[in-house]
Amino acid sequence: AAAAAAAAAASVAASWSGSGPVACASAKTRRVPLGKVEEFEDGSMREVPVGEEGSKAAVLVHRHAGAFYVTSPACSHYGAPLKKGVSSAGGRGGAPTVSCPLHDATFDLVTGKVVRGPSIDGIATYKSEVAGGTLYAEIPEAIFAGSKHERVMKAMAKPDRKDGRVFALVGGGPASLAAAETLRQEGFTGRVVMLTKEAHFPYDRVRLSKTPDVSVDALTLRPPEFFDKYGIEVLREAVVTKLDSKGQTVHYTAADGTEASLKYDSVLVASGGTPRKLFCPGSSLKGVHTLRTPEDAAEISKYAKKGQKVIVVGGSFIGMEIASALKKKGCDVSVIAMETVPFERVLGKKVGASFARLLQKEGVQWYGTAQVRLFRGNDAVNGVELEDGEVLPADAVVIGAGVLPNTRFVEGVSLDKNGAICVGPLLNAEAVPNLYAAGDVCTYPSMRTGTRVRIEHWDVATQQGRVAAKNMLGQYVPFTTTPFFWSGLFGKNLRFVGHAPDVLDRVIIEGDVAGMEFISYYTEDDEIRAVATLNKDPVAVACAELMRRGQMPKASELLIGTVNAEVILKRLRDLSVKA
Fold first, then answer.
1. Is 559 a residue whose pLDDT tops 50?
2. Neighbouring residues of 387: CB distance < 8 A, sequence distance ≥ 6
3. CA distance linking residue 300 with residue 324, whole number of Å
4. Bridging pattern class, strands 67-71 and 391-393
5. For the purposes of burial, counting CB atoms within 10 Å of the CB of 150, is it exposed (0-12), middle (13-18) or buried (19 or more)?
6. What three-state secondary structure class fits 426?
7. Which residues are bridge partners to 269 per DSSP?
8. Contacts with 395 (C-beta within 8 Å, 6 or more apart), sequence order
9. By the 8 A CB rule, do 167 and 264 touch?
10. Distance from C-alpha of 530 to C-alpha of 508, rounded to nearest angstrom
11. CA angle 515, 517, 521 (to 5 degrees)
12. N or C: which end of the chain has fewer CB atoms below 10 A?
């Protein structure tokens, strides 16, 4: 079994010279004892040091149903220690996996490849065997010399001129990047053309609201030479003006201002959203900002200094994250929102109240159940007047009121009331089966209820890009991903998994809400529909795995006290032992 695992890992690894993933199979290795078999509990994982005393070299050992798997110990997304996450045997016929505690980035323990989540690179896997009651692994010599574990990427095809197919990707965000890579990984050799109105290659937009002063280079997900190597054409500063779905043509204005068009065989619309603006007097004044691009973040960062008065309009995730980031820089920050407490519509009043107390503790003023009447100022904003007549002085304003789908250019498809493209389980439009949608522009049927949902988060967009790409190739893979998102405010780590019911009137809370360490279960009938955790990793990723398997406990079990977070974690471990 170990030899088969090593062969599988070698078959999916590919070399990439640069900052990307490389194959670990070709490195010179050393056979290292990791411990006696009985030292490793079934259904668990343990980090094992492998270097000399004082060395940080280590591997992660997983044991499921008696089988061993050895991997690198850190998540390839942002380096979080995987030992703090969840390792589980494959459910519903799938491979065993390990999930990062922070963002649910999940990796195959046999091959190291990405199974789901925001990571674009896999983790290293190492050949292991049991001899004489001791577990051994083949570890690259470079690890003992202080090198980092290599990242792994599934082998990618390159374009073939004999393949005349053209697949267009409209948008330069996570869905388009995931789709482009998946197409090549699945063997597509036709043209892959990505059109983005931005001047940048795909970057990690999520970080802009958390660290608005971050450079574009630090955000970029793949270097330009990566796209050249695999024949992924990225047309930057290309503004799509019309997508003629009947004529299978994308019309756009190129970076040099010329009009151009692209005929396609299949297209993915992943054009993201446009930040909502407030249509009130003064909204066009200098100093009134929205946040979507690195350029937006750079403008906002100019005010990130002690004593600057910044008003944030909007009490959901973008608004709260930018409020937290600016307060840390010394700004005087106030938040104006229609809700009574932060996150009320997403997390409920009780959880929202805990964040209201956090804002008060950190010195951020919260103006709930409030609306903006107008922005004051001549050339630049100097104040915000509320509907009740109160005026708040301001050096700058950041509006974080959600986004509207960028779909006005798309012809021949059905849109929902917000302008999102209506798609089926395969993420394609019913009337135009070769047109797919992903991310902010996509409204799709929930696998549980059949009702249409649209989720504005990085993780969902990334996974939709992967699924759409497979279906563009005729693989008929339905989108069944359990939504997972995260946020960070003043050092508090929020995770959310699942689909919360429309009415948040049956919320069961475990833990210390006042102390900002708790788990919130959102229930409907006798079912746990969603879970939010604050500083309670890895409970959220464990719940995500149980939801995928249909093994979450009942709400009644929580109410009578027979189930809590510890029981949930144990339930997942027990499933791994029985696999």
1. yes
2. 370, 371, 372, 373
3. 13
4. unpaired
5. buried
6. coil
7. 170, 437
8. 287, 303, 308, 309, 310, 381, 382
9. yes
10. 11
11. 125
12. N
Give the chain's length: 579
In the predicted structure, residue 95 carries a pLDDT above the cut 70: yes
User: What is the predicted pLDDT for the residue at 27?
Assistant: 67
Amino acid, single-letter form, for residue 132: G
Structure confidence by residue, pLDDT tens digits, 18-41: 333 333 444 699 999 999 999 999
Check: CB of residue 219 under 8 Å from CB of residue 162. Answer: no
The Cα 406–Cα 421 span in angstroms is 10
To the nearest 10°, report the CA torsion of 448, 449, 450, 455: -80
Tokens of 520: 């919130």
- 404 in Cβ contact with 420 (< 8 Å): no
What pTM was estimated for this model as a whole?
0.92
How far is Cα 32 from Cα 433, in angstroms, rounded to an integer? Answer: 53
Separation CA 9–CA 196 (nearest Å)? 34
Burial of 92 (0-12, 13-18, 19+ CB in 10 A): exposed
Taking the C-alpha atoms of residue 497 and residue 540, their distance in angstroms, rounded to an integer, is 6
